[in-house]
Amino acid sequence: MNNKINTFLLTIITLLWGCSSTPILSQENNNLTTGIVKELVNGDLMCYVTLIDDNGNENIIGASFEICEESQELLDKKVYLTYELANINDCQSSEPCGKTRQELIIVQMESIE
Q: Do strands 47-52 and 78-89 pair parallel, antiparallel, or not at all (unpaired)?
């Protein structure tokens, strides 16, 4: 019985965390927390940000469309990145099909120069 309660509580906590829109400032996974903005490209499903990390490696990371619209002044600048879990269209084309996937995307970039 106690095992079922623990499993239930873990499931509830996981679901509530997944529904949260709290920005994620840093991750234990390999997401960059800072980088130099090289390029911003509007795609069909999201904005794509090309960043140069501290090792000189190029990284292309998904971002909200607002990032492409509002962040042109950050090109060639070092920025601090904030991520958020978002529902992204998971269809074969840009047309809605009712399927989505959750993906961690950039929702804010702040200049640190």
A: unpaired
CA-to-CA distance for 10 and 99, rounded, in angstroms?
Answer: 26
Q: Is residue 6 part of a domain?
A: no
d(CA 63, CA 41): 10
Residue 60 lies in a domain: yes
Provide the domain limits for residue 104.
23-111
- For residue 10, being part of any structural domain is answered with no
CATH number, residue 35 = 2.40.50
Task: State how many domains the chain has.
Answer: 1
DSSP notation for 63-110: E-HHHHHH-GGGTTSEEEEEEEEEEEE-SSSSS--S-EEEEEEEEEEE
Q: How many CB atoms lie within 10 A of CB 7?
A: 10
Position 57, amino acid: N
Question: Could you read off the pLDDT of 24-71 as tens digits, one per residue?
Answer: 344 344 689 999 999 999 998 899 999 999 999 999 999 999 999 988
Distance CA 101, CA 83 (A): 16
